[in-house]
Design brief:
Elements: E1 2-5, H1 15-27, E2 31-35, H2 41-51, E3 57-59, H3 63-69, H4 71-81, E4 86-88, H5 92-95, E5 103-105
Parallel strand pairs: 1-2, 1-4, 2-3, 4-5
Helix pairs in contact: 3-4
Length: about 120
C-alpha cells in the first residue's frame, strides 16, 4: 500500500500519531510518501526528522508545478502519478481533486471545525 501525508495542519496537528503511523507502515512493508506545498527541501527534511516521521519519498512543491497543474490540483496529480492508495490531507479544496481510487483522510478537530454544520456532506 502507498500512503501519503501532507505536513502542515496534518502531520503538524498530531506529530506523535503520524510518527507512530509512518513507522508502523514502513515496518510492515508499505510505502510512505510526503506531499507538501513547502519548497525548502532541506528545512522540510529537518522538520520531518525532528518530528520522527519515517518516509520513503519527500515531494516538495514549486511554482512551476503549481502553474502546470493548479495550486489545489497539484497534490491530486502527485497522488495519481504515484498511485497513492490513502492520502491524509487537511484541505478539502485539495481533496476534491483527488481521484476516487485514493481514499482521503482529513483530520478534523473541534477547535478548527464546526461539527454541528457537518450534518450535510462535507463536499456536497
Amino acid at each position: 500500500m502507498i500512503v501519503a501525508f501532507d505536513i502542515d495542519d496534518t502531520i503538524t496537528r498530531h506529530p506523535e500519531f503520524f510518527a507512530f503511523l509512518s513507522k508502523n507502515l514502513k515496518n510492515n512493508g508499505h510505502t510512505v510518501v510526503i506531499i507538501t506545498f513547502r519548497e525548502n527541501r532541506t528545512e522540510t527534511e529537518s522538520l520531518l526528522e525532528k518530528l520522527g516521521i519515517a518516509y520513503d519519498k519527500l515531494i516538495t512543491s514549486s511554482l512551476q508545478a503549481h502553474m502546470e497543474h493548479g495550486v489545489d490540483e497539484w497534490k491530486a496529480a502527485i497522488c495519481r502519478e504515484r498511485n497513492v492508495d490513502v492520502f491524509f490531507e487537511d484541505d478539502p479544496r485539495v481533496i476534491t481533486h483527488v481521484d476516487n481510487s485514493t481514499i482521503c483522510m482529513m483530520p478534523i478537530d473541534k477547535d478548527r471545525h464546526d461539527l454541528d454544520s457537518m450534518t450535510e456532506p462535507l463536499f456536497g
